[in-house]
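pinging the channel bc i need a second pair of eyes. not urgent but kinda urgent?? the chain im working w is below, pasted from the shared doc
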Amino acid sequence: MRYKAIADQYIEDIQTGRLKPEQRLPSLRRLAELHNVSMTTALNCYHLLEELGWATARPQAGYFAAKPFSEQQGPKFPAFQSKATDPCRADDEAPSAADNILPHSRLYNDSRDRQPGPLGVSLLAPELLPTEALARSLRRASQLQGEQVHYYPEPQGHDSLRRALQGHFSRYDFHFAADQLVISNGCLDAIHGALSVTTQPGDVVAISSPCFSGLLDLLAQMGRQVLEIPSTEQGLDLQQLEQHMRAKTISAGLFSTSHMNPQGISLSAQQKRQLAEMANRYKVPIIEDDVYLELGHGQAVPLPAKHWDKHGYVLWCGSVSKTLTAGYRLGWCLPGRYFKSYLQLRNTQSFGVSSPIQLTVAEFINSGQYQKHLRKTRLALARQLQSYYHWLQQQLPDNARISTPGGGMVLWIQLPGLDSAELDRQAKIQGIDIRIGSNFSTLGHYKDCFRINFGWPLQTELQQSTKAAEQLEGLLQLVRKQLAH
């Protein structure tokens, strides 16, 4: 709708600083004239900006730009000394030589008995994705491929896709050669390969705390131990990480650096540079999970830590699973100095990635549709974040701490006194899918925290409530009921 498109423009202007907090916005009549719309459309635009917290109305004065979020503090992160743990072990278990250790369920097994819902899985809603445009690209790619579809794809990936990705990321001033990139079946597959060529079963891998539960599951399945590095409001405790690098107590690191899942933090450019320099100084490989890199809520895209990697000790992994479509299972790795062993692994363990899918994504990128889609998606996520945030702020107690991410699609919520395990149990009964704090750590922290996905709108174009809105309201009722007791 037109009023939403105009609102998106003002949201972007506030995010990028072109409009300052407390700056007066055009009058309703002037807004209608500027955008050649009716007064009703102009009023709907300002009502939406008000609802999302981007504008405030003052009697007899008009509308003014607002700060994106209130002064409310975000979740607290526990301070602790890092030590190696076994991700196969449940949070509260004490090590014992007699234990018969089984993989500890944090995400996938935990949701077997319920249908994954819009709040639980970190994904964009289908209506935000270019389904028809992708289908057209798939048809064109299939026609161009012809009889080549009957041959096994190259283990390194199709040259046209690698060159398309090279050109795409060069727009952000992140440069690499196409022949240095390896295509994979999604980001987790890329990370699995990176872990395989840099570590052995029993090795200790440093991760952030909290850490995406899928990475904990992967490390457990691969027989690696983990060492959790505390998160801070500024990013990661790099001082502790460096101590372990210097002492050679870790074999590798595995970190998201932009819009981390679940905490929503991004490392600053200075921290990313420092992380890359530490990897090179101590010759400890760092695997960078950058699946959310392009989902910032402004139009600027940050550089990955790999940008500052001088000697190839950072293995950069990414995917289109979050930005474009999860079903294509297409990702990549820039393995640096480990390229030869990484490609050899692909040669022996994989017959490549679906060639029609690779050519489809290459065509979608080269046509300019991917950049257009990303710009639209960033604005949509910024709008949805505000909608979720202000609903949570109104419904939760004053002591609730809600993350304020600058990108991605998840919110990390802390409620002192909350029993998130009991909340999860009650949510399952009602068919509500969430992820609780204990899913994201091996240490028993974050028991008063939970994570929700805001990748699904709370209202349709006709301003009707969505399944996400219904589940969020049901979840908040459960929270209030538990805290009331």
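so Residues 129-370 form a domain with the Aspartate Aminotransferase; domain 2 fold (CATH 3.40.640.10). and Residues 369-395 form the longest helix (27 residues). — does that match what u expected or am i reading it wrong
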